[in-house]
Here is the input.
Amino acid sequence: MKKLTAAALAIAILGVALLPESILPQAAAQETAQPDKTTIRLATVRTPRDGGLLDELIATFESRTDYRVEVNVGKLVYEDAKAGKADVILSHFGHAHLGVEPFVQEGYGLWPEAVLSSRDGFIIPEGDPAKVAGLTDPVEIFRRIAESRSPFIMNKDASHNYAVETLWHAAGSPDREGWYLDLDVKNAKVAEAAASKNAYSVWGATAFKDWQEKTGDTQLSMVLPDGPIMSRLMVADVVNPERFPQANVEGAKAFVRFLLEPETQAQIAAFKSDRFSAPPFLPAGRNNVDESIASGARK
Here is the structure.
């Protein structure tokens, strides 16, 4: 009887070994899918990649270390990370739909580090009726648009609308009747509406320039004002090794240390492109300096 039981057990084990990976337990499938420890899986929103900055930073990082960064661009970066598909995430901070806050609070990620800010700009219609091209003060730009009663289309994207509401108050809360248009559109649809109505609006610099290149639009231009009102903080978040023991946390931390190094922050500040009239990103790592940065990112 014992011999039959042992034989049956051996057959069962062999049968499991031959099963397709798709029906194996999820944890085992995830473990076999993990890359080697020289690969860092970065999940990022499109903004830094569209602008060209991310490719430049990764090239510098890889030239100085033994690591290779594998980039996955998308909107649901934290959902990808929860599924075990990322070692570190780069996204804008504070937006519920991107899940920075719950990702950390629920124990999926370590404390996020601020590394840079992307910039929003004013879309300028052909002819620039409010004469704002070349100005650097966002409040003055908005005030001139309001005083000239030039058409301005509200961007229903929450982050961009937040900045415009701040500018509206700073400009003295001017009457919106007749010129401030709520067309229930956002982002690319805002640009399309601005072109058709010869109107102003606000949108992200890299997204706007990417839209222009794809559509071939030549009617609209953009001015990038100074100051923090029109900048959007981006953070890097390493996954929690207690939740993701197979993740390359050491490599992810090395990448974040690299992003926070003064030399890298200077590289972010100096980044320019023919696509932009002003730097589209700002360094934001100054308040994150600690002793861990001193060790550097070199492996």
User: Anything to note?
Assistant: Confidence is low (pLDDT under 50) at residues 6-32, 293-299. The longest strand covers residues 113-124. The chain is about 40% helix and 15% strand. The CA atoms of residues 130 and 144 lie 6 Å apart.
